[in-house]
């Protein structure tokens, strides 16, 4: 018998697949305080949650019997995935079940903003018949800027077109072809912010998207812009939003999600321009039933030895395969992470080649790991080595794998190449006997760098003095160079310099390096 804990309110109809299994003992105990959950979790084999319950490391470490955590919804930012993976607990979610509801809620927010519906309703409840104060704007022919064109962003785009809005979107994986097929425009983040009358955010909350909409971003928007966040609190900087509204830059904001939830006592809620709902995007009978069915199937199946449909973290691999390829796992992922740092355009193809010792080894898990490293900068914890290829395909990136026995000097070599419209980038790495992983080639140049820490790649002209100038500039910013590698195509031609430095370089510091006329390109990559 397996013990299942349902810790957040789930649809009763949706959990029927679990109730139908004859070896499940289901306990529904919602609203537990962290210390209560910590005390109880030890006897459970499965934990089902929505976004309220925070499944922290402390809780996971008390969960000695836990095999699976299921999130009945999309965002897994309330679950410590690293702790779950470290403790061998698989995490699953239900990524598709609430897409429609979240898109509909977003449209309701846009329409409520444009016609002041919540404000007018409150006024009428106070027995005021105020028709002048609540004159709105039509959305027809207005431009909707969508930041993040994944499942929900795309559904919002289709609905907004139905309202005859002009739609422009930014997503790192959005190509012109895809935008054309959807009948929408596409641009950089700045272009979208500058063009839009209404902006709606649909990205996950990641290191990269945290406070993506800050005071700088508000500065780029049209005066009188209206903004919606039905994605995750923290993507919009709430203090910056408050000032942008008070200054008159932003005419209205609709928020379903907040940096700290519950969000009941905040100065934003006192502004008449702000309308808000308490994280209701997925709160429909339909969505709740679907997500509960999805996770119930995965939990019942997994506990009975079947593969899961929507894994979020690492699954286990057969021991024989794992033993041979485990040493290469970190290297393959780091090569992917390095490459996305040098991918300045939309990726269309990723080619992964294996040579030498890797010729007759099962390398598919390494390819998935390399693709995971490449995608995770934009897709975050949602991507893992099981779903990496599927997600790449969904983003329109084709993956190719090939093997060769010869290696020209290395006993083993993994090369990852990205093909974009604007050209190609590549990186190769090897495991040096006893010395660990090394990056040994970047875009065909020979280098020797450990794939770890803060790496700066500089493409420059091969003329005397560049190395000295670069050293002085970095010294001026008090940045210590730990290692330096240089290689060139030919004397006086193109050259590459790879530095490892002691700390992260911010955008401003990078810009000062780019000012040197001998420098073509500088990228900073933190591995
Ligand atoms: N309010 C709610 O109740 C509710 C309901 C469902 C989902 N959500 C949230 O909505 C968000 C979107 O969910 P989804 O199912 O569409 O996810 P998704 O993974 O399908 O789409 C997210 C998209 O964001 C893009 N992205 C990543 N980084 C970006 C960046 N820096 N700039 C622009 N785009 C970027 C990704 O490429 C991807 O296409 C998530 O945060 C999810 O948790 C909220
Ligand atoms: O990420 C999600 O799926 C949504 O934010 C829904 O969260 P909820 O299940 O707590 O409503």
From TrEMBL:
Keywords: Amino-acid biosynthesis, NAD, Oxidoreductase, Serine biosynthesis. Gene3D superfamilies: 3.30.70.260, D-3-phosphoglycerate dehydrogenase, domain 3, NAD(P)-binding Rossmann-like Domain. It is an enzyme of class 1 (oxidoreductase). It catalyses: (2R)-3-phosphoglycerate + NAD(+) = 3-phosphooxypyruvate + NADH + H(+); (R)-2-hydroxyglutarate + NAD(+) = 2-oxoglutarate + NADH + H(+). InterPro entries: ACT-like_dom_sf (IPR045865), ACT_dom (IPR002912), ASB_dom_sf (IPR029009), D-2-hydroxyacid_DH (IPR050857), D-isomer_2_OHA_DH_cat_dom (IPR006139), D-isomer_DH_CS (IPR029753), D-isomer_DH_CS1 (IPR029752), D-isomer_DH_NAD-bd (IPR006140). Pathway: Amino-acid biosynthesis; L-serine biosynthesis; L-serine from 3-phospho-D-glycerate: step 1/3. Residues 455-527 form the ACT domain. Its EC number is 1.1.1.95. One of its GO terms (molecular function) is phosphoglycerate dehydrogenase activity. The keyword NAD applies. Belongs to the D-isomer specific 2-hydroxyacid dehydrogenase family. Catalyzes the reversible oxidation of 3-phospho-D-glycerate to 3-phosphonooxypyruvate, the first step of the phosphorylated L-serine biosynthesis pathway. Also catalyzes the reversible oxidation of 2-hydroxyglutarate to 2-oxoglutarate. This is D-3-phosphoglycerate dehydrogenase. The gene is serA.
